[in-house]
Write a structure and sequence with these properties.
Elements (H helix, E strand, L loop, with lengths): L1 E12 L1 H10 L8 E9 L4 H4 L3 E7 L2 E9 L4 E8 L1 H10 L6 H7 L9 E15 L2 E10 L2 E10 L2 H14 L10 H13 L1
Antiparallel strand pairs: 1-5, 1-8, 2-3, 2-6, 3-4, 4-5, 6-7, 7-8
């Protein structure tokens, strides 16, 4: 179990820009790893309303429960490793195992038992060290949609943002307003329900 502050910059990409970045950084197909994010919230989207997100991330047979919530700078991330049976139980019932994440969720919603599993987003991801941070290339699939995204995770917000802008400028990729994956997932799900 751990807590950390996440500072990252995101930019949506076209398929061509995504391919340009893989060539620029010499990223081969074998460097991309699959992960699945399973999202949870209450029926009335209480976590979303509080700027928070709850997910189980699945990589091969490894599962991690994560709550992201607003912090003074970036997001406060609370993580807890799950066994496959704990993950399966949470996905089928919406009930979280005891631990730091459930405790943190209890501080945001009255009844953690009211959580529901809303669906999954699959990402094929490549990560590489870049300057003072971690550069992440994501190709995501969800609800009959696919998109491409560049993320840059840093510890120094000001310096990191300058490097991020410099890279986009160098590769002639426009800066785009980019929602995080769970917001994109929920927007698409909500449109499908209309």
């Amino acid at each position: 179990m751990s807590q950390n502050i996440e500072i990252e910059f995101k930019n949506m990409l076209t398929q061509e820009e995504f391919q340009l970045l893989t060539i620029h950084f010499k990223i081969g197909p074998n460097q991309f790893k699959k992960q699945i994010n399973h999202y949870f919230d209450t029926n009335s989207f209480t976590l979303k309303e509080k700027g928070s997100a709850l997910r189980i991330r699945e990589k091969e047979s490894w599962f991690e429960l994560t709550l992201k919530q607003p912090a003074q700078q970036g997001l406060l991330e609370t993580n807890q490793t799950l066994t496959p049976s704990q993950a399966e139980d949470a996905l089928s019932t919406g009930k979280l195992p005891n631990g730091m994440v459930k405790d943190a969720v209890s501080g945001l919603i009255k009844d953690p038992e009211s959580l529901l599993y809303f669906g999954s987003l699959t990402t094929v991801r490549a990560e590489l060290e870049y300057k003072e941070g971690l550069l992440v290339l994501d190709h995501s699939y969800y609800l009959n949609t696919e998109d491409y995204e560049l993320e840059y995770e840093v510890t120094n917000e000001t310096a990191g943002y300058k490097e991020f802008l410099k890279l986009l400028e160098e590769l002639k990729i426009p800066l785009r307003s980019t929602d995080n994956k769970i917001k994109r997932f929920y927007a698409k799900k909500y449109n499908l329900l209309q």
